[in-house]
Amino acid sequence: MIIDCHTHIFPDEVRRERAPFFEKDQGFASIYKNPKAKMAGVEDLIASMDESGVAQSVVCGFPWGRRDLCSLHNQYLLESVSRYPDRLVVFITLLCSDPDWSEREWDRCRKAGARGVGEMAFYGREMTSQDIKLMRPIFLEMEKERTPLLLHTNELVGHRYPGKGITPLERFYDLILSFPELPVILAHWGGGLPFYELMPEVAKAMANVYYDTAASPLLYSKKIYSIVSQIAGAEKILFGTDFPLASPRRYLEELEESGLSKEDLEKILGLNFLRLVDRKQEISR
User: Fold this and answer.
1) Which of 54, 82, 158, 168 is 20 to 30 A removed from 1 (C-alpha atoms)?
2) DSSP type of residue 270
3) CA 9, 11, 12: angle at the middle one, nearest 5?
4) Read out DSSP for 72-127?
5) CA–CA separation, 79 vs 72, rounded Å?
6) Quick check: bond before 235 cis, omega within 30?
7) CATH classification of the domain holding 259
8) What is the C-alpha separation between 258 and 267, in angstroms, rounded?
């Protein structure tokens, strides 16, 4: 069973006419002003899943900086999962700058079926210790309920590209240390953080941290699958594509050539995420 833990879909009104949203959100403009930047709706995702043999996908929105845009996108995600309840899992967007609204929005969306939060990202600025402090009440509640948090991370060296953040890796580590029982999914191989798990104290601190493979073919050689498996363990890697950035088939081909065992491939392609979700269900019961 293949589960894609990192995809993005957009409401029809955003996909039909992007331009009005550029002025409303500079982060959105920085990525999607380029007409080549792909956007997809739920029907596009389901078609891709069927073509690639993906059973389920986690659908995420965009880290908007406004309440109304977050709500619009979150509602589209919830409506999408109501249409395809056996195929989709919803992670919603919250606002670090507005913790009171975020608490109300999380409560609303959780009751409607949301299973996690993310992809939380900071475009054009760093995530700060103040952001973490403002979100502390929500993160504590998520930690108690074992609700996953998907964070955008990226390598700070190498080529530039739209959406490449500037938050130092130690800031993400600070968040992890502050909420040790919170299941955290670090997108894009954690921006290199798994390599620090060679340090015993870091590996211990990041016991509840997972790394997804989103954008891997565009960033790393296929050797990264076996290397991170050796360092952090295959049980901490989650298959994610960042659809529609790249086709799932491209990742599946790299995984087949990675040299990993069948058992480890099954973990990465779905079992790890299922276990993560099952742990949340056990707590809720």
Assistant:
1) 82
2) I
3) 120
4) HHHHHHHHHHHHSTTTEEEEE---TT-HHHHHHHHHHHHHTT--EEEEE--SSS--
5) 11
6) no
7) 3.20.20.140
8) 14
**Residues 198-218: pLDDT tens digits?**
999 999 999 999 999 999 999
Angle CA(95)–CA(99)–CA(101) in degrees, nearest 5?
80
Residues across the chain: 285
Label residue 237 exposed, middle or buried (CB < 10 Å: 0-12, 13-18, 19+). buried
What are the structure tokens assigned to 206, written together?
């990041």
Neighbouring C-beta atoms of residue 57, cutoff 10 Å: 26
Rg of the chain on CA atoms, in Å: 17
Q: How far apart are CA 242 and CA 248, in angstroms?
A: 9
Cα separation, 153 vs 211, whole angstroms: 10
Rounded Cα–Cα distance for residues 245 and 7 (Å): 9
pLDDT in tens, 105-163: 999 999 999 999 999 999 989 999 999 999 999 999 999 999 999 999 999 999 989 88
- Tokens 């002003």 locate to 33
Structural domain of 83: 3-284
Is the pTM for the entire model greater than 0.90? Answer: yes
